[in-house]
Please model this.
Amino acid sequence: FVSLFALLCSCIIDTAKKTYTITFEVNDEVISSVEVAEGATLTVDQVPDAPKIENYVFDGWFNGTEEFNIAKVHTENTNYVAKLTEVYTIKFVVDGNEIKTVNVLDGEKFDILSVPEDPILKAHAFVGWFDGEEQFDELADVIASKTYEKKKKKTYNIVTFKNGDEVVEVLVGV
Model:
């Protein structure tokens, strides 16, 4: 009887499948933990939604360099970490009015076609886009969010003459 009981117990133990814990982390915080049977895959419902974090883009779930694949058969505990890429916002401002906003991913260059056209200025020449004393350089690496304002240089004085209801403006070089 004891031998039969031992044989039955060993069969039950042998047929019991192992389970593994699959975790998903965002910024060092576990947001989801799922148990999966050995040799099984996760279902769509078991995978957390892409995290939404201001100024970041979600690039996927990664275990080291291995990207999460829902079809993967799990044979061990696995920890997936959200890969996030920072998004920088570049703003262009003319006379206090934002005329263009461009988002650039960390590590990418600014798209030269995204630079706004030079503003047309009365009696002034457009010098460039500046953040304080720093001039905008569309070829430089984007490493932070910035706001660039137009910088102008006076090239003419405007002289206004009024004759009755008629107003005439004349540009006089400086």
About this structure: The chain has a mean pLDDT of 86.
